[in-house]
Amino acid sequence: MSQLALVDGNNFFVSCQRAFEPKLNKVPVIVLSNNDGCVLARSNEAKALGIKMSQPHFQIRQTIKDHNIKVFSSNLELYCDMSERMMAILRRYAPRIEVYSIDEAFLDFSEVKTCDLIKIGHAIRKDIITCLGLPVCVGFAPTKTLAKIANLFAKKYLEYQGVYSYKRSTEVPAKLSLIDIEDVWGLGTASCKKLKSYGVNTAYDLATFPKQLVRKSLSVVGERTHQELNSIYCFPLEETREPKKSITVSRSLKTPAPSKERVKEALATHITRACEKLRKDDLIARGVTICISTTRHTKGKFFQASPSLLLHEETNLTPPFLKAVIQLIEQSFKEGYAYKKIGVTLTHICEARHKKRNLFGETNNESLALSLSIDSLNKRYGSKSLIYGASGLKAIRSEAPQNLSPRYTTRFEEILTVF
DNA sequence: TCTGGGGTCCTAGGACCC
DNA sequence: TCTGGGGTCCTAGGACCC
Q1: Amino acid A179 CA to nucleotide C9 C1' distance, rounded Å
Q2: Residue nearest to nucleotide C3 (CA to C1')
Q3: Quick check: pTM over 0.90?
Q4: How far is the CA of A106 from the C1' of B1 (A)?
Q5: pLDDT digits (tens, 9 = 90+) for A171-230
Q6: CA angle A238, A83, A400 (to 5 degrees)
Q7: H or E segment to which residue A235 belongs
Q8: Separation between Cα atoms, residue A311 and residue A226, nearest integer Å
């Protein structure tokens, strides 16, 4: 019988900031996305003020002022490091774990002989708050979908003190009617709209809805969710990540760019970064797609292009991809628009060790060595110490985010100072 | 001239996740 | 003025083959 736990950080990015600045406790705090564009994380106090997830920053400027909300730019380097520390602690508790996202992990307790899961849950909570200062909640259940719901109970109802265990039973528990259909993992707006038209409004309604009808309206994906709500294990624990199938680097520009030169520079910067990611994971790729688009928020002036091409052979060197994206933009750039979002995606990826030998049986070791040297210099001296000319000087001068906190745990020069 | 049916592969687009 | 970024999976439809 499967027995899983979902451990999930509470308002994770906000909690990471609070761990190093205790005076932020009990006051409203938000963390913004890249470019400080919209809201990524909110403390409970900020949620209570009506700030929504993904809400644009400019819409809440007044609320921020009126309630003295503390605002942070995303400090992903700090959050990733805190995440790794949290996962290291979780590995002590279960033989198998799946790191599902930066702030949550599924733990497999199927083989663990214990009848007191609640006790384990509290031990995990205590361990993580003591070692890292991060609050988490724990939900136990026989399937991932139910573990998500159990975690929701643990977060929402204070009497559970952050730990909830879902009891397996042959009947669908009435408690599921407390969960709105929108809060079921795997159901987005499109699926919920369909289900509501059938009068399915809660997790209980869905669990007791005829399986065939779910299959018909939501396909196999919805059917699996339906099964999982009925304690039938469909989404297995994935301990190891398959190699990535695509790698994307894209950014929105603060001020949209009307000139081809500026777009080209952004593409050059992005493809350089994408190739670094490839090399870091020891992967090679053959396909590349660029994507340029105007904002969608101005009516009538929307334009988007996403041409792609395949190189003659797989590689993880920057120059061939740089050449390819320049070729693509030369072919597809259209004058008369201001481009807001610019990105590149690498596709047809495989592991570098699978690379086919070329005719002469030699791989291009010198070029690879050069690329790897550039990577290590940039890692040591800062990400833009050495760049390709095509990226333009703007890449170096690009503005830093406004509200960035120190990277307390990964940079000696930014370590926490105690007075 | 008649033009079936089954299979594979690829791509675009939709939906979803954090 | 200002609306994130990076992924995965599924389906439908077209092209192609025998």
Answers
A1: 25
A2: A56
A3: yes
A4: 65
A5: 889 999 999 999 999 999 999 999 999 999 999 999 999 999 999 999 999 999 999 999
A6: 125
A7: none
A8: 43
